[in-house]
Design brief:
The structure holds 2 protein chains of 2 kinds. By secondary structure, chain A is mainly alpha-helical. Chain A contains 16 helices and 6 strands. Chain B is mainly α. Classes of the chains: A mainly alpha, B mainly alpha. Chain A: It is found in: Cell inner membrane; Cell membrane.
């Protein structure tokens, strides 16, 4: 590898690392904020304090996750310019504008209400607090919309023309509503909801399994499983639709995802077989070995029995993406999604048969262990899905228009390596401490001793108190 | 790169004001949080250090987000500057960002940790605040030097000059000056956020007296160096309109004096407002000194602007989103205005 090829590879790794260690937090923030809003709304509507305790408990996990998301997220916005300066300059008129709108309409919007949601208990009214939670849920979803819009445009760059090295926007509507975003955004948003549901399922199942506060956590467990019965199949459906769009607009990415090297079999017939597993040969122009099922590929990608799917051999060699990462990441993502769907059906079956009642669910240890395992699967799915998207787009940074090596900053190997090592160090600490404090908050359990906080009762103070007048200190940390 | 029409020139100018406004709000709001962090290194009491963090718990995230907003405006409106300046500033930005990561963890996880880890977390909080201020200041100084660009026809000029070019005596000095400035903001913040009679408030008062003079000296040194090494600065300051700059200087001295008077009289919030006024005047003066450059001798605001700037998106952002953003931020600060005591760390 030449020096410049190595630094291009390193700057891809640099960006891949910071994205991989950022994308595990915001989806939980987005999904959990919606679920917290639901639970808080139930509390305000029914005055059932069990909802309140559920909200306060999950809020503590929420803020741990949120802090990690902020810590790793600020880097993301700067990193485009730092690591991909020429790309940022060229794509700025569209891509930068979209990210700019994200900060103004979503990131700041979220930051403006998160403090009230977490630390506002006792300072603002019940209704205002519910409103703050609603705004956090809405703003974080908006944030996902803008980010996915920008990323989708990199997959299917419509509405722009390359002039003097700059992507000039010729049609804003076509660029914003590019073909990929129609399913790319819903797929991500539903992934956020699915992750949050599985998170709630796993945490609640742990309490039920260890027989702590079973009366409190049986209900979120049951509600989340019921929601997953709808969400998990919906996600599979959306993923299938997105696959069709990729097949249409990014045939190279699809061929890599499916390990589909040759359009035709040696005998001249269309290769319709779907590879379950396999490994590329030394030359990288075919699988050395694979296990395949005939007709499944055509069924999946064209929804016909014998439909032709263009293989990698239709793509010039210099434009072919790597195969192993998209191929396996795609399979793992799909398998995890399928497993979650089966789990949801299992839970629904138990609910229908009345085996979810307080006394009975605690005895079903197998189901509860499966539920805990389910908390981890969406994380793996989200990682794999993003890797499919990003590696599958290679060697392009803007698909078909700008190659990755044209987009990277002029960086020497030393500084690219410095960045990678620095971020490996800091973000592994973020990751480790996030999970450490998740575990710690779970072990300490919900706080049932402190009185339920009903609306703003605290004195908020005066900006310039008259000298000599004594204020009563009042400050409440989130329990 | 300047293919803008007349309307776009005006819109670009307005976006530039919005960019400066966001940066200024970041410096004013997060500067105080950073300064309180630097100050916390010298606070002996464990509970007082915890209370400093509690005092900013509800607002630090939004304060820091102004930097993200500034970055977003820069990326959206001045992408040619964004893509080259950040490449140039890779190392100081990475160091400042690692500081921000550390601060975020220290702020949010301290109250969950065991006591020995809280001590560790306090040290991390103090030093990371120091690092963010220092490397942030260094980045500003480095930008004032300008940087070399490629010159390939048909391609946007992009940064070329390596990762270490940002280190100069001037940029090291601006880093130090930034630490002094945020520390002043920090002690004023501590004064306003703690109950009367709290020992930490007295300590902050003693600091204010010293740092106030240090900050004035730092400003004077920065102006003197700039005048001697940057022709674009001395040309403006000592040109035809030198009397305007004299008025600006008087205004800065006046606001600084008012800040000191208010601080002495225990009118803490008023003192912060006067301090903010002084910083705003100086920031405005600096922007006007650099104008029309965004990065001296490298990009003007017009050559750095996106060809896609339009009146429509600007009106949408400034008429719609910015005012709303300011409203809910102000509301949040208003809700969390109550003074705290060292007791806050117990919760």
């Amino acid at each position: 590898m030449s020096n410049s090829a190595l630094s291009v590879f390193l700057s891809r790794l640099d960006f891949a690392w910071i994205t991989t260690f950022h994308i595990i937090y915001p989806p939980l923030t987005i999904g959990l904020a919606m679920l917290l809003f639901f639970a808080e709304w139930r509390w305000v509507a029914t005055k059932d304090d069990r909802w309140y305790h559920v909200v306060r408990f999950f809020s503590r996990l929420f803020i741990v996750n949120f802090a990690a998301g902020v810590a790793t997220g600020i880097t993301m916005e700067m990193a485009f310019g730092i690591l991909y300066g020429p790309f940022s300059q060229a794509a700025g008129p569209f891509f930068g504008q979209v990210l700019g709108y994200e900060t103004i309409t979503a990131f700041m919007y979220e930051a403006g209400f998160i403090g009230l949601m977490i630390f506002g208990w006792g300072k603002i009214s019940k209704g205002m607090h519910l409103f703050a939670t609603f705004n956090v849920a809405l703003s974080s979803s908006l944030s996902a919309m803008w980010i996915l819009d920008a990323n989708s445009w990199m997959q299917t760059p419509t509405g722009v023309a390359l002039k003097n090295g700059v992507f000039e926007v010729t049609d804003w509507v076509a660029a914003i509503f590019n073909p990929d975003v129609w399913l790319g955004f819903p797929h991500m948003l539903i992934a956020c909801v699915e992750l949050a549901l599985c998170f709630v399922i796993a945490v609640s199942a742990w309490f039920v399994l260890t027989r702590k506060h079973v009366d409190l956590f049986q209900r979120p467990l049951q509600y989340a499983v019921l929601a997953l019965v709808i969400i998990a199949p919906l996600q599979v459906y959306l993923g299938d639709g997105l696959g069709l769009i990729v097949a249409q607009d990014q045939p190279a990415a699809l061929a890599a995802m499916e390990g589909h090297y040759h359009t035709y079999n040696p005998d001249g017939s269309v290769d319709t077989s779907w590879k379950v597993v396999g490994w590329p040969n030394a030359k990288g122009d075919d699988f050395a070995w694979s296990i395949s099922v005939p007709h499944v590929l055509s069924l999946l990608e064209t929804h016909t029995w014998n439909g032709k799917v263009p293989g990698l051999d239709t793509i010039p060699p210099e434009n072919r993406p790597p195969v192993v990462v998209p191929f396996y990441a795609f399979r793992i993502m799909a398998a995890a999604g399928g497993a979650l769907m089966l789990f949801a059906f299992w839970g629904a079956f138990l609910i229908l048969r009345g085996r979810f009642a307080l006394g009975r669910i605690v005895q079903n240890r197998l189901f509860l262990w499966a539920a805990i395992l389910c908390g981890f699967l969406p994380y793996i799915s989200i990682w794999c899905g993003w890797w499919v998207r990003e590696v599958g787009r290679q060697p392009w940074v803007v698909y078909g228009m700008m190659r990755t090596e044209q987009g990277v900053s002029h960086m020497d190997v030393t500084s690219a390596l410095l960045w990678l090592l620095g971020y490996m160090y800091f973000e592994i600490i973020v990751w480790g401490s996030t999970w450490f404090f998740f575990a710690k908050v779970m072990r300490s359990g919900p706080d049932l001793d402190s009185p339920v906080v009903h609306g703003g009762h605290q004195h908020l103070g005066e900006l310039e108190p008259r000298p000599g007048r004594h204020e009563a200190p009042s400050y409440v940390r989130p329990i | 790169m300047d293919g803008l029409n007349h309307i776009q020139h005006i819109v670009t100018f307005a976006w530039w004001i919005a960019l400066d406004f966001s940066v200024l709000l970041y410096i004013l709001l997060d500067g105080a949080d950073l300064g309180a962090g630097v100050f916390s290194l010298f606070v002996r009491s464990h509970h007082e250090r915890g209370a400093i963090m509690s005092a900013m718990a509800g607002t630090w995230d939004a304060n820091e987000t102004w930097l993200i907003v500034a970055g977003g405006v820069l990326f959206g409106t001045f992408p040619f500057v964004y893509g080259s300046a950040f490449n140039y500033l890779m190392v100081p930005l990475a160091l400042a960002l690692w500081g921000m990561i550390t601060r975020a963890l220290a702020l949010e996880f301290r109250h969950l940790a065991e006591t020995p880890w809280q001590r560790f977390s306090d040290i991390c909080f103090g030093f990371s605040s120091l690092a963010v201020a220092f490397f942030g200041g260094m980045a500003v100084g480095a930008v004032l030097h300008g940087y070399p660009l490629t010159n390939t026809p048909g391609v946007v000029p992009t940064y070329i000059g390596g990762s270490w070019r940002f280190i100069t005596p001037f940029s090291i000095w601006t880093g130090i000056a930034a630490v002094i400035a945020v520390t002043l903001a920090g002690v004023l913040f501590i004064r306003a956020r703690f109950e009367h009679g709290e020992p930490i408030r007295e300590q902050a008062a003693r600091w204010t007296k010293t740092i106030f003079w240090l900050a004035l000296v730092a400003v004077a040194i920065t102006v003197a160096i700039s005048a001697s090494i940057f022709p674009w600065a001395s040309k403006k300051w000592f040109g035809h309109n030198f009397w305007i700059w004299g008025i600006v200087l008087l205004a800065v001295i006046f606001t600084a004096y008012k800040m000191r008077v208010a601080s002495h009289a225990d009118r803490d919030f008023t003192a912060i407002l006067w301090f903010n006024a002084a910083v705003a005047i100086m920031a405005g003066a600096m922007m006007w000194t650099v104008y029309p450059w965004l990065v001296p001798n490298t990009w003007t605001i017009y050559t750095g602007a996106s060809p896609a700037v339009s009146l429509f998106t600007f009106t949408l952002a400034m008429g719609g989103f910015f005012p709303v953003m300011l409203m809910y931020n102000a509301y949040q600060i208003w809700v969390f205005r109550a003074r705290v005591s060292a007791l806050a760390a117990y919760h």
